[in-house]
Amino acid sequence: MYDYEAGKLDWLAAGLPTEGTNADRPRAGDVARRDAPTCRLDERVGEVRDRAEMAEWNVCVVLNDERVVLGLLRAAELGADPSLRIEQAMRPGPSTFRPFVAIDEMAGFMTEHDLEASPVTTSDGRLVGVLRREDAVRMAHELHEGGPR
User: What is the CA radius of gyration of the chain?
Assistant: First the structure.
């Protein structure tokens, strides 16, 4: 048996405030958008696609009742048969990132792996927001150019 005790990474993963020399540097959780569309397993692709398009997103995060990320719909999945249930169309168990990851690290990773958007979650898998590559790259550029943060 193991008694888990929360530590510094849990604090950071929850997106809570930090102190120190790097505290003011932007991180994935700071830049992730909270307005990304979400959906449930029992919804249909057509209704979710319409909602995502109206919000000007080409991704939708599949959540359960506790906001835990179950899957992801990218453009290809959103273009599937509109009558399909989300559970049938989604990419299950997508890669997610923690809120404490430095924005310049995220920008490099997303560019290298051609990711347009990635979910940012707490250590227990709850959605914080979705980080768009364009936002990460812009923020990393501003950081290195000494511009606004």
Answer: 16
- Chain centroid to CA 46: 22
The pair phi, psi for residue 102, each rounded to 5°, is -60, 140
Euclidean distance between CA atoms 119 and 121, whole angstroms: 6
Residues 72 and 85: their CA atoms lie apart, in Å, by 13
d(CA 116, CA 132): 6
Fold topology of 23-145 = CBS-domain (3.10.580)
Among 56, 28, 49, residue whose Cα is nearest residue 130: 28
Q: Are 91 and 31 in contact (CB under 8 A)?
A: no
Per-residue pLDDT for 20 more than 50? yes
Element (H, E) at 30: helix 28-31
**C-alpha 136, offset from chain centre:** 12
Q: How confident is the model at residue 149 (pLDDT cuts 50, 70, 90)?
A: very low
Q: Cα separation of 63 and 38, whole Å?
A: 7
- Residue owning tokens 């604090």: 11
